[in-house]
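In line with agreed milestones, the collection of sequences with tokenised folds has grown. One record among many is set out beneath this paragraph:
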Amino acid sequence: MSNGKSGATGRIGADERFYRLFRGIPMMAALLDRDGCFIEISDPLLERLGCTREALVGHRPSDIATPECARRIREEHVPMFRRTGRLENVPVEFVCRSGEVLALVANTTRENDERGEYLHSVSVFTGLSNQARLERRYRDLYQSTPAMLHTVDGQGRITAASDHWLTKLGYARDEVIGRPILDFLAEGSRAELLGAGLQAMIENGQHQNVPRQMATRGGEVIDVLMSSRPERDQNGAVRLLVASKDVTERNRAEARLREAYAEIERLKEELERERDYLREEVRVSMNFGHIVGESPSLRAMLARIEAVADTPASVLIIGETGTGKELVAHAIHQRSARADKPLVKVNCASIPHELFESEFFGHVKGAFTGAHRDRPGRFQLAHGGTIFLDEVGEIPLSLQGKLLRVLQEKQLERVGDDRTIDVDVRVIAATNQDLEAAVEAGKFREDLYYRLSVFPVQVPPLRRRGDDVVQLALHFVEQVCREFGRPCPQLTQADVEALRRYHWPGNVRELKNVIERALILSTGDTLRLDLSLSDAASPQAPSPEVAAEPLAQERTWITEKEMKTRQRANLVAALEAASWRVAGPNGAARMLGISPSTLADRMKSFRIRRPEKTP
């Protein structure tokens, strides 16, 4: 549209008699050309404006309107009129010659000639009623509200939009008014509305929080929730009032949260697989469920483990250093109903006295210098499972009372916290000290001792386990060779005698160390045990000149394969003597002096099956 005047040239082709009649009509009206400029004005409108006809012809309505009204005419009314050919109940505000503001309501219709060519448009103005004033105030509030609002007519064309709606989508008002709402929807939502029937949805337009996607001017897709309500004017025409809520960031945050949860679940599954794998590795490396040896003292210990494992009773494991007390604790835990829960080990001898309470019971942030965050204690970590207190005799006397309270009441308070926490923990303690003597000397609480030693388990020293030392040596040879990736060397009869003769003050731990040293020093197929044992236990090795002769005359050792063959034959013989009964008073397990579960494991290991009965 041109901003200049079109002058009297706008009257070319017009009938002068028609204009005279138009001027005299008893209403406020005006004729406008295709550029929106005045062609003719009725006398009542000129009288209300206080202007002459010559002063207005060739000017646009926006030229005599208030600045705000002029903006609305340019941004809303003109685009809507160009797209629809009509305007209804449009509020306008003209500035009279006297300076007074004249508020009117305009209804404008485009008229074409018989060929369909644009002829002119007719605007009829009426006074602003109280209803119109309310609608104007409603319109001003509508546009300035900090919400995404838009209104569509019965054909789905946008008739109004709030400033916030325009800002969100990046459009100017004149680019929006009169255009179909479908132009501003993303592809998926557009197809959904077309499929459902847009006009039908407008007619039945009561909707709440319908998810839709809209496209901004820059091509970005935003997620919105749309709620709508239909209204009808006095002529029965329907319009749909729509409120939208931008939920893009919320949806993206939820998507990120779902991804995070999925990642957490994946990592959890991965950690659980790693946990199961590591548990299996620990079982293999520590021989859970299969403690090596068959000596009477070991069988007696295994019987006590079997008796107490599946109970909630506290266990005190007593034994010399290196006898395998931790292995016994693991065996008890693995045979208990808590096997799937954690087994938390605490080496009481390695914790500084001032940190005992924090290590056992935990602390809260700020409880002491250096407590930068909350930290659970070992008892909390072991909740539902077992706590293994190794070297329990090293617990300071001042803390033994607090430990006793936790054992009795199954409750604790973290350092710096007044909140009581319930814990369900089974306690297995171990010591190499004489706690009864410590109680008599006043170094260990008597009530704590009786609480811990509900069921004592004595671990026999290696020197009292007879030929178990040989089985353990063979076991460690296989284990260490597997770790080193080396073939297993042979154990000679001389090595066997040396193992039996040695006192083993360091017990099983010392035996394993001796085997490792011997394997490191061995270069051939024979284990050089003589190089790793002390001089007192080393066999008298023959000189190189005479060593080959007796070995050539008589072999004094057996291979591992031969030893396993003998073990298998021994098991079969016992089973046959017991008529293949494993358990019971006359079962093979009782005859061999081992538990039924141990015999079952060995039968499985040696692939021993009861022979089929012949018909």
